[in-house]
Each structure stands twice: as C-alpha cells, then as structure tokens.
Amino acid sequence: MPGPRDLLTTALTVTQSLSSADVASLIREPAIIVSAPRSGSSVLFEQMRVLPGLWSIGGESHSIFNAFPHLRAENAAMDSGSLTEQHADEETCDRLRRCFLFLLSDHQGRLLGRLPAHERPTHATLLEKTPRNALNIPFLLRVFPSARFVFLHRDPRHNIASLIEAWTVGLQTGRFVTFPQLPGWDREGWCFLLPPGWRRMRGKSIAEIAAFQWAATNSIIMDECQKLAPDRCATVTYEAFIDDPDSVLKSLAEFAGAQGPDRSMSGEALPLSRTTLTPPDPDKWRKHEDAIEAAREEWGPVADRLAAL
Q1: Buried b vs exposed e over 78-98: b needs ≥16 C-beta within 10 Å?
Q2: Ranges of each domain in the chain
Q3: Of 50, 62, 63, 61, residue with least CA distance to 262
Q4: Are 34 and 134 in contact (CB under 8 A)?
Q5: Is the pLDDT of residue 230 over 90?
Q6: Distance in angstroms (rounded) separating the CA atoms of residues 163 and 160
Q7: Pick from 164, 156, 147: nearest CA to 257
C-alpha cells in the first residue's frame, strides 16, 4: 500500500472522472464496526469481510486517515482522538470517500476499480473497522450519512485484562502505541484510542488506564447509537460471536445487506486474529483479577448499562 500522501494523490487521480456526487453514491449504507480496543473486532471484521456483497479495504483504515493530518486528533491541544461534524468539511469528506473507493475490494479480493465494466456494481456496501471509529461516530455520519453501525462489546473483565496485557507489551515494544509523544503524558506513549478525559489517568496504573479506556469507549458508543434509529445499530457480544459464529454472521449479514456465510463454522474454532497476543483461555483474565476489581468504580456502571441493552 502506498504511503499516506501517495495514497491520497493516487486516489484523487484514479477517481478524477467521477463527480463528488458519484463517489458518494457509490459507497452506500456502509457497515462500520465500533468497539472498545481488544474487544474482538479484528476477528469479527475478518469473518465479515468475506461475506458476499460486502466490500472493504482489506484491513484498518489508518493509512487513509494518516493522509489527513488535521484528523490526527480532536485539536492541537490533543484533548482526545475524537472527531466531530466540524472536522468533516466537504473537501475532507470527498477525499476520504475517494480513498476508500480506490482501495475497495470484494469478498474475493478483487479491486473494484479493476473489475470489467459489466461486473462492476452500481454501488458497494463498505465494511469498515478501525478502533478509533468508536470515538468518531458524528464525523463518520457526515462522511457516510447512510452509515450503519455494528456495536461489539465484550465482558469487561476479559476485555480489560486483554488491554492490560496489550498496554504492557505496547510500552515495552511500541507495538500498540498510537501517540508516542503525547504532551503531558507521564509514560513513553499512549496505546490505542484516546478518549476525552485521558489526562486524569496520569499517575494511574495500567489496570486503571485500561478500565478507563474500556468504560469511556463503550459509553461514547452507547450515547451515539441512542441518537440513531434502532435499525441503524446492531449490537452483538463477543461471547455470542465465539459461541455461535454462524448465527451471528447470518444476522449481521442481513443487517448489512449482504449474503450469509457460504459455509458453516459450526464445531470449528475461529482463527486467531493477527493482533492476538496469547491463545484464548476463559480464565486468562484472572491473572489480573485483583487489579481489575480494584478499578470496578471505573467500569462497573458502564457494565451495568451494557447489561441492560
């Protein structure tokens, strides 16, 4: 994949024969996965992107967003990684759409722009998954006004434990660091998405940071989804997906306007995501049980709210 600026230049060149209205109409009713980091969104995306009828760029859209420096964070003060309607001016929306359109491929990996005219669809249903999308729903609704959202959430204990492990690895290796030199932060870097209010985590333990990140992200998603018509947000738990992937994928395919899976996964273990650190284990979280329970004041109310969905 070309670098961010090369990507933007190439996308603008390849799509220059299309008007802004044409580009907007080609990407219809995208399905955007939103979740807290380490919720299992990668494995869900990897299974959904091979559903016939869905188009994706093959992975996360960091390369696209990196082509727009003004979309790196909420503001120059780095108050958060959230993007609002104010970030979505007409030029930004049009250029973002063109980047997605340029990279779109179907469930067989065929690039939209290279398909023969008679095989090219009149519109493509984009499947998008990038962790920071959870903070950017108002922005995404300006870029893709007909977007629908797949809200994935996971048991807080398991999710927070996974975040603790990833933060530990990230600070040691840089693997998950998204803001390597975050002004005012007291660690080597900040991992994953940057919710509003992050500064109150200065001096806190990694477990407290992970609990804050999980709680803040899920709260934001619930708040934004409640503003939408019920048929524009599908909610699924990671546990339900792991227990019965066939049923969940069939339901989400219907929600996204795609065909169901072309084969059953019943009795099969889902393949590990490329971001998996250690093999799944239902008791793995207990290694961090005491630290997670100590942070219950942070995550408990949000877990109660999720349970009521």
Answers
A1: bebbbbeeebbeeebbbbbbb
A2: 4-268+278-307
A3: 50
A4: yes
A5: yes
A6: 5
A7: 147
- Using the predicted structure, report yes or no on whether residue 32 has a pLDDT greater than 70: yes
Decide if pLDDT at 223 tops 60: yes
Report whether pLDDT(1) > 60: no
**Which fold does the domain 4-268+278-307 belong to in CATH?**
Rossmann fold (3.40.50)
- pLDDT over 60 (residue 288): yes
Q: Label the pairing between strands 54-55 and 125-129.
A: parallel
- For residue 200, CA distances in Å to 176, 188, 204 come to 21, 17, 8
Place of tokens 């049009």: 94
Q: How far, in Å, CA of 243 to CA of 239, rounded?
A: 6
182-219 pLDDT, tens per residue? Answer: 999 999 999 999 999 999 999 999 999 999 999 999 99
Q: In angstroms, how far apart are the furthest CA atoms of the chain?
A: 60
Give the separation between CA 146 and CA 14, rounded to whole angstroms: 24
CA nearest neighbour of 139 among 85, 193, 61, 78: 85
Least confident of 145-159, 219-233, 254-268: 254-268
- Give the pairing type, strands 148-153 and 233-237: parallel
Round to whole Å and give the CA distance between 60 and 176: 14
Provide the residue type at 32 as one letter.
I
Q: How far is CA 248 from CA 69, 110, 158, 271, in A?
A: 37, 25, 20, 16
**How far apart are the C-alpha atoms of 119 and 37, rounded to whole Å?**
37
pLDDT digits 0-9 by tens, 52-73: 999 999 999 999 999 999 999 9
**Which phi-psi region, left, alpha or beta, contains residue 59 (left: φ > 0; alpha: ψ -120 to 50)?**
beta
